[in-house]
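Extended Data, record Winged helix-turn-helix domain-containing protein
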Amino acid sequence: MGPSRTGKSWTFLTNHARVLVEITRDPNTRVRDIAGAIGITERAAQAIVTDLEAAGYITRTRVGRRTRYGIDASLPFRHPNDADQRVEGLLHLFTEHDAPSEGELTR
C-alpha cells in the first residue's frame, strides 16, 4: 500500500472490516495475531474488537485461556447508504466462507 497521487496512503476497507474478516477466517485467533495481520497495534485491535462486540457483530466466549469469537453476519453495514446490505456478503467475498444464515452466529 503506497501513497496515492495526493501523497496520502489509504485503503478501501476500514480496520473494523479487516478485523471482522480476520475473525471470520479464524474464530480462535488472538488479538495479537489480528493486529499483526492487518498492521495495527494490539491496543487498536482490542478497541475495534470491543466496538464490534458492542454493536453485536461479534461475541466473545472464553474457552480455557483463549477467546473464541462468534459472528452475526446477518447484521447490516453501519453506514446509512449501505444499511440495506448485510456484512455476510463482504465476509464471503474476502474469506470465501459461506456466511451463516440470517441471525445465526458462527461458533
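Summary. DSSP finds four helices and two strands in the chain.
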